[in-house]
Amino acid sequence: MTVIDLKNVTRKFGDLTAVRSVSLSMEKGICYALLGPNGAGKTTLSKMIGGVLPRHEGEMRVLGMDPWKMQSEVKAHLGVVMQSDALDDELNVLENLRIYGLFFWLKGRAFRERVAELLEFVSLTGREKMPTQALSGGMKRRLLIARALLSDPEILLLDEPTTGLDPQVRQVIWTTLRKLMEKGMTILLTTHYMEEASQLADRVGILDQGQLITEGSPTELIHRTLPSCVLEFDERESPGDAAVPDGSLVEHHGDRVYVFDDDETALRNWLGEHGISAPHLRQTSLEDVFLKLTGRGLHE
Ligand SMILES: Nc1ncnc2c1ncn2[C@@H]1O[C@H](COP(=O)(O)OP(=O)(O)OP(=O)(O)O)[C@@H](O)[C@H]1O
Ligand SMILES: [Mg+2]
User: Fold this and answer.
1) Which of helix, strand or coil describes residue 192?
2) How far, in Å, is the centroid of ligand 2 from the Cα of 300?
């Protein structure tokens, strides 16, 4: 069952086309990661799907409905954590949830039971009375996820859920999202972290300057774009492009050289012959795909 379906969706801000003719569809229960550098259009696309921003062109269906024309119906089935979302710092954890719950008429015992379940789910049990300004960044993000889940949504839109968080908290959030996926939740996640996409996503779309430049499962994207192994080293160590093994692909990004080949042994042998210091021989990653297709790193 297709739950999100976009055809040639375009959004402009004055002369700038922030999202350009994007088509994508998402089946129920999958996690779709939108990757892209700053300004690629990820938030703009998420906002259109969430029914908070109108599109200028194209067709859009979320659970069969037009998210702009049927805003409240669509919103009732969506849990959303936008990049700019904040908690009310004047209020404590429980009060923040209570105010939000009222949008869905969630109160009394039903509210208390749901909150207990969700706080446990995001590992915030016992912090009900804590002022939200006293929460760490990671706790705030987990509370925002719990808040988005209050209405028991069918789809979760998460705009950079782990940006700026330490690796341990990031893992905690990934575990939470995995549990939701096991329960059949459909998740659209935007991220700058290719590891996040590789760990969680069934499908990945790379957005660059408003355009969806490629799409597929993480392994599909890697296999379609580049050989499976890569040798990475400092430009100053390079013996020159002509010296690489036959059939290898050489890429230069910043002060790094990348030699791609499906034959790991060939790369290893070549390394032995050339005495390059501090080389890094590894499997090709989504970050390599991103660099190859956009010429830029995910964090640039
Ligand atoms: N309300 C707005 N008014 C004018 N321009 C906007 C507005 N919102 C976004 N833009 C522009 O649209 C483009 C896409 O922005 P968007 O926030 O969607 O990017 P993003 O991929 O989410 O970036 P980031 O990774 O920094 O969050 C940018 O050039 C941005 O400046
Ligand atoms: Mg954004």
Assistant:
1) coil
2) 13
Percentage of residues in the chain having pLDDT higher than 90: 71
The DSSP bridge partners found for residue 285 are: none
Residue 26: is it exposed, middle or buried by C-beta count within 10 angstroms (0-12/13-18/19+)? buried
Domain 2-222, CATH: 3.40.50.300
The boundaries of every CATH 3.40.50.300 domain in the chain are 2-222
The rounded Å distance from CA 62 to ligand 1 centre is: 22
Q: Whose CA is nearest to atom 18 of ligand 1?
A: 41
CATH of 227-283, one of 1.10.3680, 1.25.40, 3.30.70, 2.130.10: 3.30.70
Q: What is the pLDDT of residues 232-284, one digit of tens each?
A: 999 888 777 777 888 899 999 889 999 999 999 999 998 888 888 889 999 99
Q: How far is the CA of 102 from the centre of ligand 2 (A)?
A: 28
What average pLDDT is seen over the chain?
92
